[in-house]
Amino acid sequence: MFYNLTKLLLTSLLAILVTQPLYSQVGVGTAPTEDAEVLFDGSSEMLHDKWTYWEGPRLAATLPIKWELVNDPQDEGLVMNSNDPAAAGGKYGAADIVTKKKYRDFRLHVEFFVANEGGNSGVYLQNRYEIQVLDGDSTAHGMGAVINETESPYHAYNGVGKWNAYDIIFRAARFEGSERVEKALVTVYFNGEKVHKNQEISQVWGGPNSGIDGGNDGGKGITDTPGGIKLQAEGHDVLYRNIWIKELSLKNDDTDIL
């Protein structure tokens, strides 16, 4: 009887592992899936190979990238600090970094660490749509918000001096010719908690210094072009690590797929 019970338990566990894909894992420390592209692994080589400065209208930095690699404050390894000297005083767009590769639909994992109160940065999808990183702000412009589209899920934030994770499933806007017929959609997990589900994103916020199409019709003139993953420099010690992406092809208007 004991043997049969053990066999049943092992069979049930195996069935769960088989039916639950690895990409359903979310939160701090989530490793890349086998078919994911690693965008930052702590190495200088990967930082300079896969990233560059965004050449927006306010660009003040010059290559090579000046984001410093520093020791992880909690674990082993190196992480990157978004406090680029060219962005001193909060000049977003002056030293933001963006992936050289551009994307449409994807699943993205990013981990960030706000070192000081009021730390400010941001994770941009397609170099257009910001998922905010801003300590101390729980408004629609605050931590974890799809900026100006949702309220901040501030309760999910681990706080200053701790690692946090965004797991993001994004579907790009759809077009017929030059006309946008479906808005971009996003589902966001913040430290393992689903905080936004199939959230429509109506426009680019922040003007031309913010990202692609920010200067088109006040940010409402979205175009049918892919864009990179961008991290914002705003003169604050916000650290990043364990960044990876898996390209998707989402046929249906649904990003709630994990």
Short description, anyone?
This protein is mainly beta and 258 residues long. 10% of the residues lie in helices and 33% in strands.
Q: How does this structure look, described?
A:
By secondary structure, this protein is mainly beta. It is 10% helix and 33% strand. Mean pLDDT is 93; it is low at 1-23.
Could you name the key traits of this structure?
258 residues, mainly beta, Jelly Rolls, eight-stranded antiparallel beta sheet, 10% helix, 33% strand
What is the domain tally?
1
CATH class descriptor name: Mainly Beta
CATH architecture name:
Sandwich
Low-confidence regions: 1-23
The amount of helix comes to under 10%
CATH superfamily placement: Exo-inulinase, domain 1
**How many strand elements?**
15
Query: Please, how many helices?
Result: 2
Can you tell me the CATH topology? Answer: Jelly Rolls
**H/E series:** HEHEEEEEEEEEEEEEE
SS content category: mainly beta
What layout of secondary structure does this protein have?
Layout: H1 2-19, E1 37-40, H2 44-50, E2 51-53, E3 68-71, E4 78-81, E5 97-99, E6 105-114, E7 120-125, E8 129-134, E9 163-171, E10 174-176, E11 179-182, E12 184-190, E13 193-201, E14 230-231, E15 238-248
Antiparallel strand pairs: 1-15, 2-5, 3-4, 4-15, 5-14, 6-9, 6-15, 7-8, 7-14, 9-12, 10-11, 12-13
